[in-house]
Task: inverse folding
């Protein structure tokens, strides 16, 4: 047998000391996320099957399996995070407001908050295309002992202690950072074990993929239109290649491995963009920076934005550093567009 890959469990134990503030809680928190991810993976993988069984009418499907998968994923993550006595609150794209979690004795001594997009790219499920889960972890800022507050969730991305995503793709991967680089683990579904398959992930230089919903071109700000023109020009390693799945996690994951930029700009239809600062942009920005990339709203770093509301949207430019910086140059030709 060849070299044995390290498991996620082994990796977490070895790197325990790198976690800020933590005395083992963050390791346990990551352990609960990896369990939730396995459950969602199992459900996502039988999505087509459940539809078939449901349509036949003669198999009595539990209410749970009939739920839309994004609600199912939300419930799984909520349930598992509530159980472990580590998290004092969760905010999710699928919940109107943040959820307060009390500890075993009914107190409020837990230290961490989690923000999540439980199922990203959910419109792709019906057509068997990859979807993901995104999560972001902060240390609470309110005092231990009292219920979690909105301020615990409205922290700048820079304050994240960990962030990651799961991609339910041709294989299922968990990719995360605690501020010491980015590592990717692939699930062996037969064993239910995650293996360190992608250590120390970095954007390669010379990226040439651009990912944007170009159907909205007419509604884009002029800086984006100009940058797209640049991507398509014949010069040096251009024209670039266009790739757009419509699942942020999948588009980002591919671009991090191959080199590329993902853009969801403002448009006349979505004046603040579409993606959510807290559930999607901040965690992906953290991973991008840790992999040597960059993430901006067109003008400033995503993780420096002071959040004002839970479901806040922002325009998002993320990927290979030199590509994001080139897009930023074009955006800066129209400084008024910074006031979206
Ligand atoms: P979600 O499924 O969590 O609502 O997110 C979908 C997001 C993102 O994943 C994707 O990149 C983007 O929406 C696609 O939007 P368009 O269909 O407007 O291109
Ligand atoms: Mn999403
Ligand atoms: Mn979602």
Result:
């Amino acid at each position: 047998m060849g070299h044995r890959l390290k498991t996620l469990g082994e990796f977490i134990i070895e790197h325990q000391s790198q976690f800020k503030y933590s005395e083992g809680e963050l390791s346990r928190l990551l352990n609960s996320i990896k369990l939730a991810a396995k459950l969602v993976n199992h459900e996502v993988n039988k999505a087509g099957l459940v539809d078939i069984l449901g349509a036949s009418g003669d198999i009595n499907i539990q209410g749970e399996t009939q739920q839309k998968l994004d609600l199912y994923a939300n419930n799984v993550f909520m349930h598992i995070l509530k159980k472990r006595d580590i998290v004092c609150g969760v905010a999710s794209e699928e919940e109107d407001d943040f959820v307060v979690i009390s500890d075993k004795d009914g107190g409020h001594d837990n230290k961490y908050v989690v923000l999540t997009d439980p199922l990203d790219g959910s419109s792709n499920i019906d057509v068997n295309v990859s979807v993901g889960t995104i999560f972001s972890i902060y240390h609470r800022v309110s005092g231990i002992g009292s219920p979690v507050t909105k301020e615990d969730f409205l922290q700048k991305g820079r304050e994240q202690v960990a962030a990651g995503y799961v991609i339910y793709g041709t294989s299922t991967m968990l990719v995360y950072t605690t501020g010491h680089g980015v590592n990717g683990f692939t699930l062996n579904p037969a064993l239910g074990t995650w293996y360190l398959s992608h250590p120390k992930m970095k954007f390669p230089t010379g990226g040439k993929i651009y990912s944007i919903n170009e159907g909205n071109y007419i509604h884009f700000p002029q800086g984006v239109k100009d940058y797209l023109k640049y991507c398509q020009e014949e010069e040096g390693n251009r024209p670039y290649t266009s790739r757009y799945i419509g699942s942020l996690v999948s588009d980002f994951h591919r671009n991090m491995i191959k080199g590329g930029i993902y853009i969801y700009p403002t448009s006349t239809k979505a004046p603040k963009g579409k993606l959510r600062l807290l559930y999607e942009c901040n965690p992906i920005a953290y991973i991008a920076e840790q992999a040597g990339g960059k993430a901006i709203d067109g003008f400033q770093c995503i993780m420096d934005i002071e959040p004002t509301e839970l479901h806040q949207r922002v325009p998002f430019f993320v990927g290979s550093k030199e590509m994001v910086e080139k897009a930023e140059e074009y955006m800066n030709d129209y400084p008024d567009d910074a006031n979206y």
